[in-house]
Specification:
Helix content is 48%, strand content 6%. By secondary structure, the protein is mainly α. The strands form two sheets. The chain has a three-stranded antiparallel β-sheet. A three-stranded antiparallel β-sheet has the order 3-4-5. The longest helix is centred in the N-terminal third of the chain and has 20 residues, at 6-25.
Length: 358
């Protein structure tokens, strides 16, 4: 694969996969796909990952410029509405990524505004966070690394102070002073914060989610203005972590088990976060740009399928994603959020999207 055409070939494969997935799942939401044949495990409402499927449909609509694809994306986005009243910090993931790529769509913009207001209403000023919530069971007063991305840009337009507080609380808990790994989930017991046993401190996706949230905060003038030096220090701590700007491209899903399954979805999230940080004027910009593109190249060359030469599997599958290593659930699969962030990164290189806005 020549350097000059790798991104176009990879993006075309991913867009082909989106079309095939749409035909396969109908009005349901894809979650993860079998690496052998590409058959999707689906959900009726999308769970916390539904916004990534809507976002992929919007990226395809921008790629094809086909009104039918735009209508399909709009219809899928509308099906996210029931999550508006759910008690979950993943409203950020659902409604930001499900609507941000929908440039110029009034219904999507209105849905995003409603979601931002609902998320702000859930903000707990005493704890300084939008709590994880009880929509998926378990204790409500949690701070989890995956509760920061999406929530920060969703709140940025209406409550930058709350967006900054929410992010900094997560950073204070989940990132050590020298960038070392901390537990990515904490529970409040009424007196203070206690670490949760799961996910474990080596969770690759946790660090990727936090890096993405920091990048989005630095790209938001309103949020960055709350405490830019603190944000820049957090970015440096995360970038100083092993294998972020150097070393292995695709890390194990759990660093505590280095021989365990990889997680390409964490690599795809990290690639987008780095490309966003490259757009922040700082001395890290060049290194982030180089590493972000290098990550996308590795995913495209080593982990993406291209059809006939991949054992008959559909083109455009990002393999080797790990949904949940601890439970042994979908540990070498295609994951819908991995597909989304790969597509988003490739689309940014192709000029289809502006990473300062998505």
């Amino acid at each position: 694969m020549r350097t000059g055409d790798w991104a176009d070939l990879a993006l075309a494969a991913v867009m082909e996969r989106i079309a095939g997935t749409a035909a396969q799942v109908g009005e349901r939401f894809p979650l993860y796909a079998d690496p052998a044949d590409g058959r999707w495990k689906t959900t009726g409402r999308g769970s916390w990952a539904g916004g990534f499927w809507a976002g992929l449909l919007w990226l395809r609509a921008r790629y094809t410029e086909d009104p039918a694809d735009r209508r399909a994306a709009a219809a899928c986005t509308a099906r996210l509405a029931p999550w508006m009243d759910a008690d979950t910090a993943t409203r950020g993931l659902i409604f930001w990524y499900g609507t941000a790529p929908a440039i110029g769509d009034g219904a999507a913009e209105q849905l995003r505004e409603r979601a931002a207001s609902a998320t702000l209403a859930s903000f707990d000023p005493g704890l300084g966070i939008v709590p994880w919530g009880d929509a998926f069971g378990g204790p409500r007063l949690l701070a989890r690394a995956d509760g920061a991305p999406g929530t920060v840009p969703l709140l940025a337009g209406i409550a930058p102070g709350a967006a900054a507080a929410h992010l900094h609380r997560h950073l204070d808990l989940c990132v050590g002073p020298a960038g070392e790994r901390q537990p990515p989930a904490w529970k409040f017991d009424g007196a203070g914060w206690l670490p949760c046993e799961e996910p474990r401190p080596g969770w690759a996706r946790g660090r990727a989610w936090l890096l993405l949230a920091v990048a989005d905060a630095l790209l938001s003038p309103e949020v960055a203005a709350q405490d830019r030096p603190r944000l820049e220090a957090a970015a440096r701590r995360l970038l100083a972590g092993s294998d972020v700007l150097r070393g292995r491209f695709v890390l194990p899903a759990d660093a505590i088990d280095p021989t365990g399954p990889l997680d390409t979805s964490a690599a795809a999230i990290t690639a987008v976060a780095l490309l966003k940080l490259a757009r922040v004027p700082a001395d890290w910009s060049l290194a982030c740009s180089y590493r972000g593109v290098a990550l996308l190249i590795r995913l495209a060359e080593r982990h993406l399928t291209y059809g006939a030469h991949d054992g008959g599997r559909p083109a455009g599958m990002l393999l080797d994603g790990c949904y949940d290593a601890a439970r042994g659930l979908a540990v070498r699969h295609e994951l819908i959020w991995g597909d989304f962030f790969l597509a988003l990164g490739l689309a940014s290189l192709d000029g289809l999207v502006d990473l300062k806005k998505v």
